[in-house]
Amino acid sequence: MLKDKHGRTINYLRLAVTDRCNLRCFYCMPEEGIDWLGREELMSYEEMLHLCSVFVKTGIEKIRITGGEPFVRKGFMPFLTKLSQLDGLQQLTITTNGVLTAPFVPELKKIGVRSVNLSLDTLDRNRFFAITRRDELPSVLETLEQLLHHEIDVKLNAVVMEGKNTDDILPLVALTKDLPISVRFIEEMPFNGDEAHAKSLGWDHVQILETIKEKYPAIYKLVDPPFSTSFNYQIPGHKGNVGIIAAYTRSFCGTCNRIRLTPLGDLKTCLYGGSVLNFKDLLRSGATEEEIQAALYKAVNQKDLNGWVAEKNNTGRSSLSASMATIGG
Ligand code: SAM
Ligand code: SF4
Predict the structure, then answer these.
(1) What's the pTM value of the predicted model, to 2 decimals?
(2) Bridge pairing between strands 230-234 and 241-245
């Protein structure tokens, strides 16, 4: 079992398989001038599979694949299929922008992916273009339809951005009336690949909830599942539910059970912290399984108490001005 020095059990790995993306969400990366990682710098699928198998033997039970956009990396589905066959892995999930995902949904179902997080900040095609700088809303909606059709659980993630999509909060909530999905609103974080981005938060979780309550005063709080990063709510008579993720105000750190591996192989024990160890380098230096396990135990043990402490200690290369696509969200 993996435990940190604060007594938290760590059993959840978020693995970013690429930094590349077919959208350019302005809160995540700049429109142009992005220095993509070179092929040699990226972990290969074989390296990721090897690390995941050792991590699972060491106590990781759940893996979420993220990016960049996972489906833009060549060979992604064969990799995912192999990953789904790892002994001891209890849950395999994906976070995707849904642009290329729809045709793969039957295969996702077949290999046992039971839940997908689909990122969608607006239902309005013009606003979608303004936010993502690409006209891809129809493909994302097709992915949503396919996921529902194949009875894969959907969490629809929307980043709430002042002056951009706050008018979308209620239409997105309205989706929960007839669809059995969880619509989750995320506070915008400063990771957009831009040093100059304001570090202050526009809309926080309180303001998001107030907006929903004005229209749906009967909304009530649900009991949050263990390790939930969202505060969860139900509107009476709705099939789905609503979540709010205080990603910037960081109220969920106390029960954090996760670590992150970037496409470069950097281990981050907190979203707001720097890299604590590079597992690709360790692997390429010929480390044995036991050495990898020992390195993981040690790194996890040192996990910071919360995102504020991690941010204060963060002097490494993954600073807050990094793009979320190099971290994985
Ligand atoms: N490309 C995939 C997608 O968009 O779902 C996976 C990677 S993306 C980095 C993972 C999640 O991070 C998405 O739900 C995205 O909305 C969220 N994200 C990216 N930048 C963010 C930011 N600055 N603040 C809050 N959430 C952010
Ligand atoms: Fe791409 Fe996801 Fe970042 Fe948007 S949030 S630019 S879809 S990686």
Answers:
(1) 0.94
(2) antiparallel
